[in-house]
Specification:
Oligomer: heterodimer
Helix content of chain B: 25-40%
Function (chain A): Component of the proteasome core, a large protease complex with broad specificity involved in protein degradation.
Radius of gyration of chain B: 20 Å
Subcellular location (chain A): Cytoplasm
CATH superfamily of chain A: Aminohydrolase, N-terminal nucleophile (Ntn) domain
Family (chain A): Belongs to the peptidase T1A family.
Largest sheet of chain A: 5 strands, antiparallel
Low-confidence stretches of chain B: 1-5
Structural class of chain A: alpha+beta
Mean pLDDT of chain B: 92
Strand content of chain A: 15-25%
Strand content of chain B: 15-25%
CATH class of chain B: Alpha Beta
Number of strands of chain B: 13
Order of helices and strands of chain B: HHEEEEEEEHHHEEEEHHEEH
Low-confidence stretches of chain A: 234-256
Pathway (chain A): Protein degradation; proteasomal Pup-dependent pathway
CATH class of chain A: Alpha Beta
Number of helices of chain A: 7
Largest sheet of chain B: 8 strands, antiparallel
Largest interface: A-B, 35 and 32 residues
Number of helices of chain B: 8
CATH topology of chain B: Glutamine Phosphoribosylpyrophosphate, subunit 1, domain 1
CATH superfamily of chain B: Aminohydrolase, N-terminal nucleophile (Ntn) domain
Pfam family, one (chain A): Proteasome
CATH architecture of chain B: 4-Layer Sandwich
Radius of gyration of chain A: 19 Å
Chain lengths: 256, 281
């Protein structure tokens, strides 16, 4: 019988963290920013069907970087958690804090369990409040820790550089168009400092808009509305009026 | 690991198991006891007294469908509630109106709404209108044991079919049998009278305003002949709930809008108590 090599727990954890970080770094970055009327999610995503951002509940949105099958699993778990909680108690009792805690516990347990490989994902859970002060953004790295973020957050490959860029330029009360432009600008900077153009078709954009009359505040921004926001200086609102104007920009209530 | 998943606070395995997009399927795996259909009812003598909702009517018009309900709930010969709401949005493009045991029906609607929303969030696409109607059928069928003891729930489902671009109505029986109705439909204790009224007043080319007037006329006639159906309550300002579903989605008429229609009908009925007359030939 061969004796297994001794690996110090410290080394084992460092190896696992390294493994997860590398996996996450392979994915493209995405950013989540607060703006005057809510929270905007922006990322580069060549796929129209495989989303990085989605709705979890009325006021709660989800963003993920890393391995698709792993974060998709966590997303569905989150939707089930939120819907069950809302069904058992009340819709108001589903909070981003509760969901972030469950995600953190899940990621943490998987990360430290020797039987499972660590998830190569980094999540953002955001909840839009009645006012900007009540907005909550939580970042959940692969190891089960929770970071309470304010203003802006970036996850994925180039996250550190993008965060620094955003921290310097993001301010409270930006319009949606301003926040969106800042986000795209931050994503188009490469590691070596050069800038490249990201066409609108490759952008995935979603908002949690507190001014939306519907109970469900999550909405994807696509097509003409996105183009108009990107080019125009005018801060096109995302209210019901623009929904009616462009029915093809949004079908149904807050889904794709 | 598995046995101890709850105490670690992590999501239990059932939450992370890929598979069904149905919330009810998930519940039946994870917590079957909270699904309405899985409840065991002890054998009882006679009928259980519980509030019952009464009349729901629906009318299609070119461009959509109108679903409306009166506001009365009865328990035996007592009025249990004067201002109950029995018409609910199911999602952006459909609505459900309920007749039968109020408590069970409201729970069924809550679960139905959640079922549609859950599917939408997980799949990233909405169910077809037929799919939604079938889902409701399954839920009614799971209530069959209760229905046998007198606690039936019989809803009316109406929605705008985005693919076919028209309003559609589905009616149900206690066993979950589903049938599509063309033009108009009614359910509940006053439905016989409401249907009679609609049969005489319905035309294929109604405008939205005419359709909303028609449903309130029908509810008035139902209340006229059925003691369990409530008419417009002018003193308490309680008027029927009227909802319109069109390509713009679900909209519930404001209290002012429905009271205005109800009042103008009431005024005409002071002259002509039986309401508008259809021609003989």
């Amino acid at each position: 019988m061969s004796t297994p090599f001794y690996v110090s727990p410290q080394q084992a954890m460092a190896d696992r963290a390294e493994y997860a970080r590398k996996g996450i770094a392979r994915g493209r970055s995405l950013v989540v920013l607060q703006f005057a009327d809510g929270i905007v999610f922006v990322g580069e995503n060549p796929s129209r069907a495989l989303h990085k951002f989605s709705e979890i509940y009325d006021r709660i949105g989800f963003a993920a970087a890393g391995k698709y099958n792993e974060y998709e699993n966590l997303r569905i778990g989150g939707v089930r958690y939120a819907d069950l909680r809302g069904y058992t108690y009340d819709r108001d009792d589903v909070t981003a804090r509760g969901l972030a805690n469950v995600y953190a516990q899940t990621l943490g347990t998987i990360f430290s369990s020797q039987a499972e490989k660590p998830y190569e994902v980094e999540l953002v859970v955001a909840e839009v409040g009645a006012t900007a002060d009540a907005d909550q953004i939580y970042r959940l790295p692969h190891d089960g820790s929770i970071v309470d973020e304010h203003g802006s957050v970036a996850v994925g490959g180039n996250a550190e550089q993008i965060s620094t860029f955003l921290d310097q330029r993001h301010r409270d009360g930006m319009s949606l168009a301003e926040a969106l432009k800042l986000a795209v600008q931050s994503l188009s900077r490469d590691t070596n400092g050069t800038e490249r153009e990201i066409p609108a078709e490759r952008l995935e954009v979603a908002v949690l808009d507190r001014t939306r009359p519907q109970q469900r505040k999550f909405k994807r921004i696509v097509g003409r509305q996105l183009a108009r926001l990107l080019e125009g200086g005018a801060s096109a609102p995302t209210d019901a009026a623009s929904d009616n104007e462009e029915p093809e920009a949004e079908s149904g209530s807050g889904q794709e | 690991m598995e046995a101890n998943t709850r105490s670690t606070g992590r999501l239990p395995a059932a939450f992370l198991t890929p598979g069904s997009s149905s919330f009810m399927d998930f519940l039946s795996e994870h917590q079957p006891e909270i699904l309405p259909g899985n409840r065991q009812l002890p054998a009882t003598q006679g009928v259980i007294e519980a509030p019952h909702g009464t009349t729901i009517v629906a009318v299609t018009f070119p461009g959509g469908v109108v679903l409306a309900g009166d506001r009365r709930a009865t328990m035996g010969n007592v009025i249990a509630q004067r201002d109950i709401e029995k018409v609910f949005p199911a999602d952006e493009y459909s609505a459900v109106g309920i007749a039968g045991t109020a408590g069970l029906a409201v729970e069924m609607v809550k679960l139905f709404q959640l079922e549609l929303e859950h599917f939408e969030k997980v799949e990233g696409a909405t169910l077809s209108l037929e799919g939604k109607a079938n889902r409701l059928s399954t839920m009614i069928r799971s209530n069959l044991a209760m229905a046998m003891q007198g606690l039936a729930v019989v809803p009316l489902f109406a929605g705008y079919d985005v693919d076919r671009e028209k309003g559609r109505i589905f009616s149900y029986d206690v066993t979950g049998g589903r049938s599509e109705e063309h033009g108009f439909a009614a359910t509940g204790s006053g439905s016989v009278f409401a249907r009679g009224a609609m049969k005489k007043l319905y035309r294929g080319d109604l405008t939205e305003e005419q359709a909303t007037t028609l449903v309130i006329q029908a509810l008035y006639d139902a209340a006229d002949d059925d003691s369990a159906t409530g008419g417009p309550d002018v003193a308490r300002r309680i008027y029927p709930i009227v909802t319109v579903i069109s390509d713009e989605g679900f909209r519930r008429l404001t209290d002012d809008e429905s009271s205005e229609i109800a009042r103008s009908i009431l005024e005409r009925r002071l002259e002509q108590p039986d309401g508008p007359r259809a021609s003989l030939l």
